[in-house]
Amino acid sequence: MKQGEDRRVTRTRRLLRQALVKRMREKSVSSITVKELCDECDINRGTSYSHYSDVAALLESIENDLFAQLQQMLAQLSTEEMLSRNNPSRTMVALFEFLRENADICAALLCDNGDPAFIERVRVFVRREVLGEWRHMFSDGDGERQEYTFAFLVSGSMGMLQHWLESGLTLTPEQMAAMLTEFITQGVAVMR
Fold first, then answer.
1. Distance between CA atoms of residues 166 and 154, nearest Å
2. What is the distance of C-alpha 57 from the center of its chain?
3. What is the mean pLDDT of each successive set of 10 residues along the chain, which is 192 residues long?
């Protein structure tokens, strides 16, 4: 492809993604049509179909891109960094900066009209990648208690994130990272 064509493809995909995110803030993704998105972007339906087969494929593409980036961020977090009583780690702050930079997409995916499957996908990843590292902290507890503790920590963290996004990002990434670190640390200490 020529460079001009690459820019047109990138621009069209960006416009379609922005239109979907905007519509998801207004109504259920299952009720959003390709025609609505095309009208919003001022492109024809044929152009849209050359990029995505339907709205579900567009949503899946957005989720896959965001999830891949989230995986990279979470993979950099060590348990020791997350649970440090010192200042929040640079990685934790970077994660919240990433979320702030992608606030429109994250808010759309996590809002009432968002995709519950995406939230569950994030939870499964965190469970798989992080729970193994956390298990050593509960040597005096049984497996069932560990499972409840993990469910509490993940759900609380997700709730904080949703509230932050819904409230307009009133706190800085540094403040959010510090607060989350404090809550996780205190929660783990209480639940031991």
1. 18
2. 18
3. 70 93 89 94 91 94 89 69 59 82 89 82 72 55 74 85 92 91 73 62
